[in-house]
Amino acid sequence: MVDFSRLSSNWVMWSNMSQLANASVSTDCDGAEICFKSDDASFYLRQSADRWILDEVDERGQLHDDAARFSTLELAEKYLIWNWASLARSTIGAPSLGRDLYALGFSPEVHVHQLREGVYRLSSPTGEAVVTGVPATIFSHLMSMSVDEVERMVKEGVA
Fold first, then answer.
1. Which residues pair with 113 in a beta bridge?
2. Rounded to whole angstroms, how far apart are CA atoms 54 and 68?
3. What is the pLDDT of residue 59?
4. Are 144 and 126 in contact, with CB atoms under 8 Å apart?
């Protein structure tokens, strides 16, 4: 059985800080191992063969299948924690952390392969991820960090 306690506690903390309405966590999800839901956005994490796949429902209720893919649960954790914390930091007016990482361009420690416009496969010693747009550039810098390091970084000045 997969331990989702770290992700669950992060969702509760960051969704509350973001003031997302009706935020909840459930393992009773249609086709997903776990889902993080709110009236504003929802995230469904499912496992398929050797990949963790993230499906998202945006604020307009539109489903985005395969919004991101990860070779390990740890990479998915880093991505989701960063995503949720970034929204919360923006909501409360805390300094953005992503701007500085984005300005660095892709991490030199990560091999980047553009699959199509705006979609990148990132390969590093910690695994692979397929991520879109600006988050791909930022995430390339998080891949080599531990989940603990990502958590410490996003909590600076807010928690």
1. 121
2. 5
3. 84
4. yes
Tokens of 37: 């839901």
**Amino acid found at 63:** L
Give the H or E element holding residue 121.
Answer: strand 119-124
CB hemisphere CA count around 28 (13 angstroms): 1
Determine phi and psi for 58, rounding to 5 degrees: -85, 180
Structure tokens given for 56: 């998202």
- Tell me the C-alpha distance between 58 and 71, whole Å: 24
**pTM across the whole model:** 0.95
Enumerate the domain spans of the chain. 5-155
Tokens linked to 116: 């199509």
User: Is 23 within 8 Å of 9 (Cβ atoms)?
Assistant: no
Strand order in the sheet with 51-57: 24-26, 34-37, 42-48, 51-57, 63-70, 127-132, 119-124, 111-116
Pairing relationship of beta strands 42-48 and 127-132 according to DSSP bridges? unpaired
- Determine the average pLDDT of the residues in 114-139: 95
Q: What is the per-residue DSSP string for 74-92?
A: HHHHHHHHHHHHHHHHHHH
Whose structure tokens read 């989702």? 4
- DSSP code for 1: -
Task: Assess whether pLDDT exceeds 70 at residue 159.
Answer: no
What span, in angstroms and rounded, lies between the C-alpha atoms of 148 and 128?
19
